[in-house]
Amino acid sequence: MDLALTMAVGPRSSEFAAVVQAPIVEEIAKGLGVFLIFVIARANFDGPVDGVVYGALVGAGFAFTENIQYFAVSLIEGGGAELTATFFMRAIMSPFAHAMFTALTGFAIGLVARRGGSVSAAFTAGLVGLLGAIVLHAFWNGSAVYANFFALYVTLQIPLFVGFILAIVALRREEARLTYERLGDYAHAGWFTPQEVTMLATKQGRRAGLAWAAALRGDRTELMKSFIKDATALAALRQRAISGRDPHTAERERMLLARTTATRQALLAY
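Above: the chain sequence. Below: its structure as tokens.
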């Protein structure tokens, strides 16, 4: 092969690896990690928020490992100047890219988890989310290979990341709504008062509850934190039972109800 052909094939091969091969291989590997979490710890995979969190954690772990490799290679081959440039591009400008990509796969699996779907349904949904992750990853890499990366970073990547954050906020609000509804079920059964449900399931209510507990004799903030934590776990447990994901909830439900009752008594004790 002559030099001209080598020079022509080399860059094209590198571009293919960056824009096509890397997104497919890496997102499949990361998506498999999220799917395994669903299979192994299905009782603790409650919905889209969990899916986004698990996907982001898997993606962040992958990025951390990959960055170490890139930093080492840059330092060995190009010295401090190249290491600085690589650090700026990967650690400063795009630290959440991998987390954002894989969160799409997790989100899709989380939708199935919320409905109590089967493993096969989660796998199918995961494939749809995986396709989105691959496309987003390929677009990200392609912007560095075929276009003005910095221009696209400002006009498209930053708005995309802002949209990702706003989507997480919306998911958190939906999670809070479900917590409110499930604790409302217990309120109807007499385990909580309507005022307690508002305090335990809303951001403003929790803030007010913590301030109230802090003003009690001996500062009972930790008790209030336990009360909120156990009530939230109770709401998630009931949601899993309703969706049929965890038929063995009765014993844990009794334990959480007993613990929240005891914590309430400790909070109100004089």
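The two ends are 88 Å apart (CA to CA).
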